[in-house]
Amino acid sequence: MIEIEQGAGRRPQVVRASRAKLAWLQFRRNRAGLLGLGIICGFLVIGLLAPVIAPHDPYEVDFERSLQRPVSGSPFGRDELGRDMLSRVIYGARISMMIGVIAVVIGVSMGVPLGALSGYYGGLPDLLTQRVVDVMLAFPGVLLAIVIVAVLGVGLPQAMIAIGIVSIPVYARLVRGQTLSLRAQEFVEAARAMGAGVGRIVFRHILPNTLAVVIVQSTLQVASAILTAAALGFLGLGAQPPTAEWGAMLSGARQYLRLAPHAVTFPGLAIMTTVLGFNLLGDGIRDALDPKMRL
Which residue segment(s) compose the domain that 279 sits in? Predict the structure, then answer.
């Protein structure tokens, strides 16, 4: 708990506030962060309520209205098979959010403990772990994901696993750096002197103190995962037709760019808006959790 003195021109008043409440109060001052939160919440609601919100079946084919431009009944137009673009974009939100969340869960669940144990033990285990991390970070994320998909096979589940594996070295390097600075702190030395084991020290004392940077990185990593998933879908290595995924939608409509620009415009805008929302949210959370930004 943190004590804050408030009151001007009157008797000082001590208010006890938790770190989470202070972070939320700081976050509310960040308009860009609130905008990002609103964007993300909007897409989450759209994805969850897709069967209710979507005006048409996203997989219903109507060749008579193939590449139809936006009209009153189909405000986003129709794709090359006559499927309603608005409905497909709405369902695409559900898939993209799922990809981002699952990829981050994989990265956090494997990268965070790996980085913490590597930083705590040091020595040869740390050296070997970090050399593997260096090799993985030497590859561009999309290229590494393509290699992993080539090994696992083509498909949406394989793409999610590949994107999750790509994010593991990011978390491992980040948490290792935090652990190196925390393991020499007095509270860790005290826990070690009291006979606490490695597992208790790492998971009860070190990891909770890395939570802030992990949250910020996870928010930004979701945006990266969505972009990578769209790239894999565009290349035909992610979601396969007729799945309503934004990258696959761009891939199917790219040859009709001049004839029907709406078929690539709306999925592209959806990707851009979602990634922008997560980036703004991540910046807002970072500023809120930074003690130097608090007034």
Answer: 2-293
pLDDT (tens place) for every residue of the chain, 295 residues total: 444 444 444 444 444 457 778 878 888 888 999 999 999 999 999 999 999 999 999 999 999 999 999 998 889 999 999 999 999 999 999 999 999 999 999 999 999 999 999 998 888 888 999 999 999 999 888 999 999 999 999 989 999 999 999 999 999 999 999 998 888 888 888 888 888 887 888 888 888 888 889 999 999 999 999 999 999 999 989 888 888 999 999 998 888 988 899 999 999 999 999 999 999 999 999 888 866 555 4
**At residue 103, what is the residue type?**
A
**Are the CB atoms for 51 and 91 separated by under 8 Å?**
no
d(CA 162, CA 103) in angstroms, rounded, equals: 8
Distance CA 232, CA 242 (A): 15
CATH no. for residue 105? 1.10.3720.10
Closest CA to 204 of 214, 216, 213, 192: 192
Domain count, the chain: 1
Enter the tokens of residue 203. Answer: 């998971």
